[in-house]
Amino acid sequence: MKSTLSLTVNGVTRDDVVPDNLLLVDYLRDKAGLTGTKIGCDGGECGACTVLIDGRPRHACLTLAATCQNAKVETVDGLSRDGRLTAIQRGFHEKLGSQCGFCTPGMIMASEALLRRNPDPSEADIRDALAANICRCTGYVKIIEAVQFAARERTA
Q1: CB atoms closer than 10 angstroms to residue 63
Q2: Would you say residue 139 has pLDDT above 90?
Q3: Is 72 helix (H, G, I), strand (E, B) or coil?
Q4: Where are the domains of the chain?
Q5: How far is CA 61 from the centre of its chain?
Q6: E strands within the chain?
Q7: How many CB atoms lie within 10 A of CB 134?
Q8: Are 44 and 54 in contact (CB under 8 A)?
Q9: Are 142 and 88 within 8 A, CB to CB?
Q10: Which fold, 87-155?
Q11: Radius of gyration, alpha carbons of the chain
Q12: Contact yes or no for 96/122 (Cβ under 8 A)
């Protein structure tokens, strides 16, 4: 079956007819054309597909698009404004939080959610917030430094 999905994606209201079994990650990439959200494991294990739904981090590969009716969805594609990187994006760039970059969109979105609810997180808070996101290239030190940098930048 198909139904009309009404939601806001990165500040833009959308109404699309979608199959009831369409995953949010496929909706975002194929229907909305937002390819920043990555498909990593396709089973909710890696976090590369993390997006914010009504401000909370969720794995888009485990979320049916239809469950986002009237929701506000944010992806990494919509974070920067007028070509300016956000503090968390600058943190990943300046503190070398990206290696291959595949996990970076999910890490950035999970970090963004953390900093919105806790502007001064401890290292333990950061590790906890990123526990559902896996990076296969790093030891997480640079990722944690990137989030700490962003926290300082946001409060300055």
Answers
A1: 20
A2: no
A3: strand
A4: 2-75, 87-155
A5: 12
A6: 2-9, 12-19, 50-53, 56-59, 72-74
A7: 16
A8: no
A9: no
A10: DNA polymerase; domain 1 (1.10.150)
A11: 15
A12: no
Q: Scan for tokens 């949010």, then name that residue.
A: 24
Q: Are 55 and 72 in contact (CB under 8 A)?
A: yes
Q: Can you give the pLDDT at residue 120?
A: 97
Q: How far apart are CA 3 and CA 50, in angstroms?
A: 24
Q: Residue 128 corresponds to which amino acid?
A: D
CATH 3.10.20.30 is the classification of domain 2-75: yes
Tokens of 61: 């590969």
User: Quick one: which of 83, 97, 153 has its CA closest to 130?
Assistant: 97
Measured CA to CA in angstroms, residue 79 lies from 16, 17, 54, 131 at distances of 22, 26, 14, 22
pLDDT in tens, 110-130: 999 999 999 999 999 999 999
Q: How confident is the model at residue 82 (pLDDT cuts 50, 70, 90)?
A: very high
Q: CA-to-CA distance for 138 and 57, rounded, in angstroms?
A: 22
SS3 69: coil
Could you tell me the pLDDT band of residue 155, with boundaries at 50, 70 and 90?
A: confident
* Integer Cα distance of 138 and 150 in angstroms: 19
Instruction: Note whether 113 and 57 are within 8 A (CB).
Output: yes
CB 39 within 8 A of CB 61: yes
